[in-house]
Design a protein that fits this description.
single chain, mainly alpha, 2 domains, about 60% helix
């Protein structure tokens, strides 16, 4: 029991510091708020199990609150994933379109533009209640996957132009 008490004190201390740096004056308004900005607070791993489920449902849509089961959570995640795939498809179409304006593979990856996109996503994340660490990781992955896709299109279009001439 003393080990659990020490863990809680360390965790509470880290949350209080993170909350204060985020501009909050209380840890009771949303204990998870510290996990939405960068850097994430350093918390020790608890050796103990917690009561499941913990907390209360927190996703409110209209007059309904989600989620009362893990299956309900997973169904919601699956629905969002389907929307993400559609949005990523639209983004890939714009990436492909951008290649029409790039004469050589040397102008495909522009690190300053990559940084601008990534920094913008991280800066905008709090406005949509997205943890900044997720925004940074996702946008880095999107950019890192888009560059080879763009290079492939530029290369293939160059070959096609070469053989047509």
């Amino acid at each position: 029991m003393q080990k659990w008490y020490q863990y809680c004190l360390v965790a509470l201390s880290a949350l209080t510091v993170a909350h204060a740096s985020a501009g909050s004056t209380s840890t009771s308004d949303d204990f998870a708020a510290a996990c939405y900005s960068e850097p994430l607070p350093l918390l020790p791993v608890s050796p103990d199990n917690r009561t499941i489920p913990w907390g209360i449902p927190s996703i409110v849509t209209g007059n309904t609150t989600c989620c009362s089961s893990l299956d309900e959570v997973r169904a919601g995640i699956d629905a969002v994933d389907a929307q993400l795939l559609s949005l990523l498809s639209q983004r890939a179409a714009f990436v492909r379109e951008a290649t029409r304006f790039k004469a050589t593979h040397d102008v495909v990856d522009v690190p300053s533009r990559d940084q601008q996109v990534n920094d913008g996503a991280v800066a905008d994340a709090p406005a949509v209640n997205l943890p900044q660490t997720i925004a940074r990781a996702v946008f880095s992955a999107i950019i890192n996957a888009s560059v080879p896709f763009e290079l492939c299109i530029v290369c293939l279009s160059s070959l096609l132009c070469f053989y047509r001439c």
